[in-house]
Amino acid sequence: MKRVFLIFAALFFAMFFTACIQNSDEQYEVDDFQVDNESYYKEYEDEDVISDEDSVGAVWDVNFSFLGTINDGNADTINYGSGLLTYLNLLNETVTINSASWVIKKFITLSSGHEVPILQIFFADNSSNADEDGYVTYFILQLEGSSVSSKSETYYLNNDKLYKAKVKLDEAGAIDEICYIQEPDSTKGKVNIYTSNIRIGEELKVDGYANMLDMEVHECKTMN
Length: 224
Known about the structure:
The protein has 224 residues and is mainly β.
């Protein structure tokens, strides 16, 4: 009888130990960091930025949207995208800029010596609308990146700059000179970026708005 009891006791402990091992396996999960689809984007707001509640009733004199493939800024050819920009002129008339639109990616070196990526989205008016000096109206949205990694790049929204420019084209239609005539003010507008990974050859989608009528106007300021 004692031998039978010992046999049953041994079987009971064996079954209990097996159940504990199986239960422990079911609760243990392995996270593969190489298959990480989580977005680590963090937005850093500007000082005195206009809240979403205030922006609803605001009248923005510039509105824009863009969808297109990111081009290499050093390439000889570019792929055009689909872009639309409207702005109010001094007569309070709505002007539409949608003749051509594209985006390029390039790198700039800061005064600290660090190299950062930037995106430049061009909204170009039709060359037939050139003024008497041969300049065409462009708007250029510049997004400055903060970091470069093999996985993704982060573009902080408080580094966006929307320029109004007069552009002179050469005989082939290529840009010969860009004169920036209005300084950007990133606290008076917003850019929405709908693309998580910013890479050459991939699709970029943005939209946004800005106030530019009260910005400082220059006769011509050339920049890279």
